Amino acid sequence: SDAAKLPEFEIKMPSSILAKDTITSMQAGVVYGYIGQTEYIIDQIKKEIGIDNIKVVATGGLGKMISEASSKIDIYDQMLTMYGLRIIYDKNR
Questions:
Q1: Fewer CB within 10 Å, N side or C side of the chain?
Q2: C-alpha 11: how far from its chain's center?
Q3: pLDDT tens, residue by residue, 16-51
Q4: d(CA 24, CA 54)
């Protein structure tokens, strides 16, 4: 009850990571934070499997925003999960 009450905000790419107000700072933290962690995970997977030239596909949620800002994602497919569910449905009919 004594903590600051932070405002709700839209998740969108701010024009700069160097924000000048609370909402833009929160947007920068969320968006650039997700981009950074996604790129780190991709790098670690490539390192652990020992293969650099794997295709990286983003889907759903923040996938489009992250894929547009990252050179480590090769393809964005909004419907990938739905295609997979359709395949499962067809196999179980």
A1: N
A2: 11
A3: 999 999 999 999 999 999 999 999 999 999 999 999
A4: 34
